[in-house]
Design brief:
alpha+beta; seven-stranded antiparallel β-sheet; 728 residues; Calcium-transporting ATPase, cytoplasmic transduction domain A; Rossmann fold; seven-stranded mixed β-sheet
Length: 728
């Protein structure tokens, strides 16, 4: 089973990688994923082998706190952490300012009294002000030293060693005259480190808000109809079967079906569609939507965690918490980063001493290497962009079910479209009916409609709409490959495509075959009907193309995507549709169970395939594709089977989703480049590699500032995605 935990105390990717590695290694754990941004961990484990308490205990041994995740809407953990860090920074700054004045005041020409010019007074004064800074930031030392002793150093360990070495060295030199002290460097390292974590936490909270907005959509109260009276109840008290009232301006509190009245609902929070949708009796309404005008009463069908809104929130949170393949490289590097930096720092100090340089210069270079190194930037590069991208998609009605889908979508080179209900409107209408001689039209329609009513296929539903008849009892009903079969009043009725007729050895005259061919050339779907083994009728049905279908195909072709039409219709009908949409590749007369095989055949050709369907009849094909896309995905089946769900019933959301995917991946690559470039340039500069050539060196104080800026830059770059409009 899957359970979520809160893990506090993680400051960098090395921390999260260590927690993930440790928990993944526990017996009974199938998979563990840690989200550094949200300080959460999702664990898939066997309850019969492992308990939540044992998982928490394993994390606590690493020096972090862990507890089962509990929804606390009133307690914003990130906001509390932000306030705590801001308080730490302000207090540190309060003591840092006089510390800098004492250490650097004479160089800056501050008008100090004579007593201040005493070297002993200046030295002991600096010690007086550094001690409160050390106490205020003691959590850094507690965490860093504990992790160092456990042979799992992290960012706190680097800061602890760097600032601690500067303080200890300075304290040793207190009694010496003209000894260079580094109290101000240690103070600035700790203060800037706290400032960096504050900015990082603030930016991470803004990042999370892109998703957190969904949590506030569902109203907290609702109006329940009790007899003839209105009664206000809490949303938690709503039950399936309750009758709720929604007035103009109110939000719908649960999923249900309208029983009386009508309204105009703003569904933008679910589908991204800005225009209100008119709803009337028997229409479905969803929690979180807002009634902009009208009044209606509806019967509740789903509540709480079962509503479409709740399912969306779960999908978005899972996607934001998952890891993209590109992010795993950064995680691996981050896991090795801190030990490598410690080694480099030791080598730097040794090299400077072997070159005959003073100890304080060697120490300064070693401390600068420790402080400027920033695994945080590496660890934040991917998850920040993923979280913002997933949140932007959710607001636009585009649901990515995992970070891997977000990455894979922009890699696809082939887009396969199902026809009925995807490229077409999914509401075919019967245009022509031809009967064999001596066939009773009245009896035939009663039999056809009685059988087709038991099928949910769009073509079956189109036949049912032709006439209003009283259905007859059907025996031995079954869905065949390409049609349906059933016995009505002792007559065995078979309805389906030409392949089904041939399979059952039904003979069709040349006259009817020619007419069927003509209908197919017109883009119509032909349904054949046989009774007791004898052909008796054919019906031609037309399903209009979606208005946006041609534009969608054209936009995808501009992205250099190969478009394939996959349908169970005959070749002529499929070719007619393809010509209207400028689609070059057509796979026609494909049975539902064969669609998956066709997708796999394309993949064997080396293609990266997106399969687009309605999420109901195309589940195997959607699952087989690299990315399965469901259009108009307000169904449970679509949410279950597809990797990418387009909540808006609009095909143009597909190229928008691919643009968003590409924008997120570009942002991730920018972040990773900056993180690697920063460390590749900063560490040699801090170590003094450029000192013999150009005289360049780096004071640990400025190294601390650069480290803080690096993490903030990565998160800030990811936040730019919030303004990205994939439909523009």
């Amino acid at each position: 089973m899957k359970k979520k935990f809160i893990v506090s105390g993680m400051h960098c990717a090395a921390c999260s990688a260590r927690v993930e590695r440790t928990v993944s290694g526990l017996r009974g754990v199938n998979r563990a994923e840690v989200n550094l941004l949200k300080n959460t961990m999702t664990v898939d484990f066997e309850e019969s082998v492992l308990t939540e308490e044992q998982i928490c205990a394993a994390v606590k041994k690493l020096g972090f706190n862990a507890s089962p995740f509990i929804e606390k809407p009133k307690a914003d953990v990130a906001e509390n952490e932000e306030k705590r860090l801001w308080c730490r920074f302000c207090l540190s700054l309060l003591f840092l300012i006089p510390l800098i004045c004492l250490s650097m005041g004479s160089m800056l020409g501050f008008p100090f009294p004579d007593v201040f010019h005493s070297s002993h007074f200046l030295a002991w004064g600096q010690l007086f002000f550094i001690l409160p800074i050390l106490w205020i930031n003691r959590a850094t030392y507690q965490s860093g030293i504990k992790n160092l002793c456990a042979l799992s150093p992290d960012m706190s360990s680097l800061i602890s060693i760097g600032s601690g070495a500067a303080v200890i060295y300075s304290m040793w030199g207190l009694g010496h005259i003209d000894f260079h002290l580094y109290f101000e460097a240690a103070g600035m390292i700790l203060t800037f480190m706290t400032l960096g974590r504050y900015l990082e936490t603030r930016a991470k909270r803004k990042t999370s808000n892109a998703i957190g907005l969904l949590l506030n959509l569902a109203p907290k109260r609702a109006l329940k109809l009790v007899g003839e009276q209105e009664q206000e109840i809490l949303a938690e008290e709503i039950k399936v079967g309750d009758r709720l009232i929604v007035k103009a301006g109110m939000a719908v509190a649960a999923d249900g079906i309208i029983e009386e009245g009508q309204g105009s609902l703003d569904e933008s929070m679910l589908t991204g569609e800005s225009m209100p949708v008119d709803k009337t009796v028997q229409d479905v309404v969803h929690a979180g939507t807002i009634n902009t005008a009208g009044y209606f009463e509806f019967t509740v069908t789903k509540t709480g965690q079962n509503t479409l809104l709740s399912q969306m929130i779960r999908l978005v949170e899972d996607a934001a918490s998952s890891k993209a393949p590109i992010g795993r490289l950064a995680d691996k590097v981050s896991g090795l980063f801190v030990p490598v930096v410690l080694t480099l720092s030791a080598c730097t100090m040794t090299a400077w001493l072997l070159c005959g340089q003073p100890f304080d210069l060697a120490l300064r270079a070693a401390v600068a290497v420790l402080v400027i190194s920033c695994p945080c930037a590496l660890g934040l590069a991917t998850p920040t962009a993923i979280m913002v991208g997933v949140g932007v998609g959710a607001r636009k009605g585009i649901l990515f079910k995992s970070a891997a889908v977000l990455e894979n979508a922009q890699k696809a080179d082939t887009v396969v479209f199902d026809k009925t209900g995807t490229l077409t409107q999914g509401k075919p209408e019967v245009t022509d009916v031809l009967l064999e001689n001596n066939v009773s039209e009245t009896d035939l329609w009663r039999h056809i409609i009685s059988v087709e009513m038991l099928s949910s296929h769009p073509l079956s539903q189109a036949l049912v709409q032709v006439r209003q008849v009283t259905p007859l009892a059907v025996e031995n009903f079954k869905i065949e490959a390409g049609g349906v079969q059933g016995t009505v009043e002792g007559a065995v009725l078979l309805a389906g495509n030409l392949k089904l007729m041939e399979k059952n050895h039904i003979s069709i005259s040349e006259e009817f075959l020619q007419k069927a061919s003509l209908f197919s050339q017109q883009g119509k779907t032909v349904l054949y009907v046989a009774q007791n083994g004898r052909f008796c009728a054919l019906a031609a049905m037309a399903d209009a193309l979606r208005p946006e279908a041609l534009q969608t195909v054209q936009e995808l072709q501009k992205m250099n995507k190969k478009i394939v039409l996959l349908t169970g219709d005959n070749q002529k009908t499929a070719q007619s549709i393809a010509e209207k949409l400028s689609i070059q590749e057509v796979l026609a007369e494909v049975l539902p169970q064969e669609k998956q095989q066709q997708i796999q055949a394309l993949q064997k050709q080396g293609r990266n395939v997106i399969m687009v369907g309605d999420g109901i009849n195309d589940a195997p094909a959607l699952a087989a594709a690299h990315v399965g896309v469901a259009v108009g995905g307000g169904t449970d089946v679509a949410l279950e089977t597809a990797d990418l769900v387009l909540m808006k019933n609009d095909l143009l959301a597909l190229p928008a989703a691919l643009r968003l995917s590409a924008a997120v991946m570009k942002n991730i690559k920018q972040n990773l480049f900056w993180a690697f470039f920063y460390n590749a340039l900063g560490i040699p500069l801090a170590a003094g590699v450029f000192y013999p050539l150009f005289g360049w060196s780096l004071n640990p104080m400025f190294a601390a500032l650069a480290m803080s800026v690096s993490s903030s830059f990565v998160v800030g770059n990811a936040l730019r995605l919030r303004k990205f409009d994939p439909f523009a």
